[in-house]
């Protein structure tokens, strides 16, 4: 997949494999944890059930009351464990949304800085070196995988900064030109702008935008084109 136009070069593949192996990226999307309101609804249901049993306790035999007491204690114990696990999940989910928001802001800042460089400002692009930690945090809940597009963007940024450090304006223009070409590359599912947008959408609880390849209208057009070719 990396030998396509505007994809990673051979020397970049080793970097990609190294990054993935050294970070805990989740390739399977985790489900959104149950909200606090949902958890409390379950708790209230259990309490109401126990209260009803207490009210009608005189209608049960001693053995039935003992059994119901054991069942009630068991339900409460299970709920306590469930609440603890769910709270940990909610905390991770909240952190993931915050991390996605920060990473989206980083990408917007980077793009603004590159725009200023294109307009003549010869200063290196500044960004947090630990940006990958933010993606690692939110990758557990993101619907789609953006690591390829992020690595490519920050690899380009590093090349821009190297060109500025060497005072090589010709190389700088070539790198920026290469970045522009990527934005019109139809071999990729997302560009860095949609990646940033989807990170932002996730951070506010909105569904991420699906790749154009999986869009219904594209599938209809693709199937129509294939049928046309077969008929000919």
Characterization of the model:
The protein has helices spanning 10-22, 36-55, 62-118, 131-138, 147-165, 169-183, 192-203, 216-231. The chain is mainly alpha-helical. Helix 2 (36-55) runs antiparallel to helix 3, helix 3 runs antiparallel to helix 7 and helix 5 (147-165) packs antiparallel against helix 6.
- Our measurement of the CA-to-CA distance between the termini, rounded to an integer number of angstroms, reads 31 Å
Overall, the morphology is rod-shaped
Rg calc: 26 Å
Which structural class best describes the helix and strand composition? mainly alpha
**Helix fraction by DSSP (H/I, runs of at least 4):** 55-70%
Low-confidence stretches: 1-8, 218-232
Mean pLDDT: 77
**Total of helices:** 8
How do the strands and helices of this protein lay out in sequence?
Layout: H1 10-22, H2 36-55, H3 62-118, H4 131-138, H5 147-165, H6 169-183, H7 192-203, H8 216-231
What keywords describe this structure?
232 residues, disordered C terminus, mainly alpha
Summarize the model shown:
This protein is mainly alpha-helical and 232 residues long. The chain has helices at 10-22, 36-55, 62-118, 131-138, 147-165, 169-183, 192-203, 216-231.
